[in-house]
Design brief:
Keywords: Cell cycle, Endoplasmic reticulum, Growth arrest, Metal-binding, Nucleus, Zinc, Zinc-finger. The protein is of the alpha+beta class. The chain is built from two helices and seven strands.
Length: 143
């Protein structure tokens, strides 16, 4: 069994910063803990918002905000991520580069980089966000 702990800031009289997740941890039953880190996505103006939001999910979010004494305008909008690779501008971003955590390359461009194209830090490891099977499945859904 694995538990996830999220530390969330909720605005109050002392700190009026917007509502946000401060940190997240995974706690497996073995007694260790893993600090989850934010990924840095490339962004542009023509990014499309995720299409998986449902009216029921939006009303649930609204009721949670009301319970915390917040309005929707108090919450920062989620960071929009680009679908375009920062190198070729055509491929869908799918690769996370470590240790910098930039998510900016498509499947076709990742093999050509030993340094991150965003920050020029040496890439020690990288991993795909989605498998080729998942990407193909999504392409079929949109057709």
């Amino acid at each position: 069994m694995i538990s996830m702990v999220s530390v969330i800031h909720i605005p109050d009289k002392t700190y009026k910063l917007s509502c946000r997740i401060l940190c997240q941890y995974l706690l497996p039953t073995q007694g260790q803990f893993h600090d989850l880190k934010q990924l840095y996505m490339s962004a542009n103006n023509n990014a499309t918002p995720p299409s998986n939001s449902s009216p029921d999910g939006e009303s649930t979010d609204r009721s949670l905000l009301e319970k915390a004494g917040l309005s929707e305008s108090d919450v920062e909008p989620p960071e929009e991520s680009s679908k375009d690779c920062v190198v070729c501008q055509n491929g869908t971003v799918n690769w996370v580069l470590l240790p910098c955590r930039h998510t900016c390359l498509c499947d076709g461009c990742v093999r050509y980089f030993q340094r991150c194209p965003m920050c020029r830090q040496f890439v020690q490891e990288s991993f795909a966000l989605r498998s080729q099977k998942e990407q193909d499945k999504d392409k079929l859904k949109t057709l």
